[in-house]
What we know:
By secondary structure, this protein is mostly helical. The protein has one domain. 86% of the residues lie in helices and 0% in strands. The protein contains four helices and no strands. α1 (2-24) packs across α4 (54-91) and α2 packs across α3. The two termini are 39 Å apart.
Amino acid sequence: xxxxxxxxxxxxxxxxxxxxxxTRWTFAIALIFHRDLSGIxxxxxxxEMTKGHFWGMLGINIDISIGLFGLPMMMIWPAYFFQYSDxxxxxx
Length: 92
């Protein structure tokens, strides 16, 4: 039980660290191509560009993630549920 709780806490901490750096380095890939910067230079510039805008950018990233992954899953789930319930009805 304690090992599972420790795994959940570890996963949550790693997720928070990932979200922090992913939000601060949001523009890094675009800067590599647009301004022809090196990888480290693009990460540094992206860090400076997002300074003071972290919470807004995090909200936008979460909204985009929900739109890309959450909404399609919400659309697929009822079809899966009804398919399963229909097959149970046929077996009875």
